[in-house]
Amino acid sequence: NQVQIAHNVYIGAHTAIAGCVGISGSVRIGRRCRIGGGVGVAGHLEIADDVTITGMSLVTKSITRAGVYSSGIAAEPAVRWRRNHARLRRLEDLARRVRELECGLEALRGPAAVAGREDGADD
Prior knowledge:
Blueprint: E1 4-5, E2 10-11, E3 16-17, E4 22-23, E5 28-29, E6 34-35, E7 40-41, E8 46-47, E9 51-53, E10 58-59, E11 67-69, H1 78-89, H2 91-115
Parallel strand pairs: 1-4, 2-5, 3-6, 4-7, 5-8, 6-9, 7-10, 9-11
């Protein structure tokens, strides 16, 4: 099923691995894990027990808690992908700037605007 398991990999009991998965060297995968098709796992990391990794994900850091993990972006024209990837790297800064702008707008509206909100919320 074209699964590549590199050197010194440990796979825990009752773990299922779908087709076209690549697991790099010295990875430790816990028990009862499920790894979806096309997943790539970078080397020298650990995956905890009871972890599900959805198809086409790329694992680049250890996963220390049970749960479902996903990654990946659908294929699109390279120009659009490069532009969006550059924006993604600035996402945290952009979110901070939006919060600052929202706070500034609230300050401009004043307390009367907050008191008269239709939703009744108490910021």
